[in-house]
Amino acid sequence: xxxxxxxxxxxxxxxxxxxxxxxxxxxxxxxxxxxxxxxxxxxxxxxxxxxxxxxxxxxxxxxxxxxxxxxxxxxxxxxxxxxxxxxxxxxxxxxxxxxxxxxxxxxxxxxxxxx
Length: 115
Description:
Layout: H1 3-27, H2 49-53, H3 61-75, H4 85-114
Helix pairs in contact: 3-4
């Protein structure tokens, strides 16, 4: 092997390493996590709050709070953080739906008690 062969091999190895590392950094960039598009909303309309929480429409305050806590313990995004980005996004969507239903239930419950 001549000195020219060794230099050519070293240059090719350096260029190959540079190319491979740049390709790897583009495909697994943590900065792109924030730019990921939202998953499509599978719910065209949100069901009534009592269906989301799994209680009757005339549930008591304690029943509403208990149902909310039970549903959030199932779908809290931190519980599924290690299961992949798609499952986490679905859990976040479901958690938003549960939170909105709970807020609606509390507003309705407060309004009915004040009347």
